[in-house]
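I trust your eye. Have a critical look at both lines of this record:
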Amino acid sequence: MRNPSGSLSPRNSNSTQSRAPLQSSSIIQKRSTSMPTNESVSLEALLWDMDGTLVDTEPLWVECEKELMAGFGYQWGEADALHCIGGPMERVELYLREKSGSNHEPSWFGHTLVEMMLNRLTQGAPLRPGVQELFADSREAGLKTALVSASRRSVVDAVLSSLPFEFDFSISASEVSRSKPDPESYLTASRRLATSISSCVVIEDSKVGISSGLASGAMVIGVTDEIFDHESFHGVSDLRSLPLADLRSRHSDWVDRVVRKAPA
């Protein structure tokens, strides 16, 4: 899920932490129908977002957006980039078309932007800090892993080809009928891994992605300085501050506080 870096990222801001309201629509209320409340619930899987969480691709997206819109005489700024965080691409396409003032179909903007991004990804995508260590430790511990992205399949595959490790599988926006912030992609990943959603931890960085994870019924690690007022949200500024033992402890505490107290 896209989240900007540098001056556009709340992670790099020295300002006081802000409390981000969650979406009030039915999406955030939609939860898995199979959340166990027995003593057997334990951490079994990590569900990773891609853009801005796993890899530092956001500067590349912003470069592409700036270059594309410059061709229409529009100066792409910080507010524009922030508006496009988290996608999905259909929303970004409409925004690009509106700002361009052109008669191109919205899909033209999405296609062009993705092609520009794929060209940049030929050089690979750097991992976010702490990702490789947490991924390696989780694999060594026998946890399942899935990549769950709101990007299109072509972009996901380009990133996957550059990674020094492998996921059990990946889900892109191309394989679901409703992308983030709807929980469909995370619920689909849980089912494919044959784990209950409460045995999964979602790792995200944007409001759209965090809302998706929370709506699924999973515990969510948000790599962000923003604070989300939700019992299943745990924020960290950097994954280097989250060793696997700490993650297990947070999940166990969450199960005791939230899952086992949930109505049957």
Observations:
- The two ends are 32 Å apart (CA to CA).
